[in-house]
Amino acid sequence: MAITDWPADERPREKLLQRGAAALADAELLAIFLRTGVTGKSAVDLARELLHEHGGLAALMAASRERFCASHGLGDAKFVQLQAVVEMSRRYLAEELQQRPVFSSAASTRQFLLAQLRQEVREVFAVLYLDNQHQLLCYEPLFYGTIDGAAVYPREIARRALELHAAALIVAHNHPSGVAEPSDADIRITRRIRDALALLDMRLLDHCVVAGPEVISLAERGLI
């Protein structure tokens, strides 16, 4: 049955207008993005199939161009549209952080870090540079590779903080393994960065570890 033949309150678009986007399941949201199905399948049927094939919405959104376009019903045009949606979401979250103190909206901070780091297939170490009011000045990925295997230089973080006239920082990195638990190496580098910044009268407010849908705060655990 075509979606147009469904009861009005069950159609994804009408449901979104009546109840808001949060009321929709992943397949319904994806169906709105797809707009149309394929022969013998509605957009919702196709969306469910794609989510099952890729292992969920996050995996689909993080898929490479080759992997994405290999799926039936998808192609370069849909890949380009999806990447634009993802990037708009990242920029929206960044603007949200720039308009208010970071710690007045911890949820937005976590969402921003998830959007930036969750789907990285390699480990990325990034820094949020903040002003005196703890508003975001700049977000920058600085180091790549595992903390044990690739150097994370506190002096480079401090040098960039001086250039930006930052007063406080939050550092973050992802665990591509999907396990968010901080390692001993994570704790050691956190304390090295904290001590280096303290010499410049700057504060390290937190170190967040992102893995899958989870963000762990070392500050909340008393590890800074």
Describe it.
Strands 2-1-3-4-5 form a five-stranded mixed beta sheet, with helices on both faces. It is of the alpha+beta class. The chain has nine helices and five strands; from the N terminus they run αααααααββαβαββ. It starts with 11 loop residues before the first helix and ends in a 7-residue tail after the last strand. The longest helix has 23 residues, at 76-98. The protein has two domains: 3-96, DNA polymerase, domain 1 (Orthogonal Bundle), CATH 1.10.150; 106-221, Cytidine Deaminase, domain 2 (3-Layer(aba) Sandwich), CATH 3.40.140. The protein has helices at 12-19, 26-34, 43-54, 57-62, 65-69, 76-98, 106-117, 154-164, 184-198, and strands spanning 124-130, 136-144, 168-174, 203-211, 214-217. A hairpin with a 5-residue loop joins strand 1 and strand 2 (136-144). This is JAB domain-containing protein. One of its GO terms (biological process) is proteolysis. Pfam families: RadC, UPF0758_N. Keywords: Hydrolase, Metal-binding, Metalloprotease, Protease, Zinc. Belongs to the UPF0758 family.
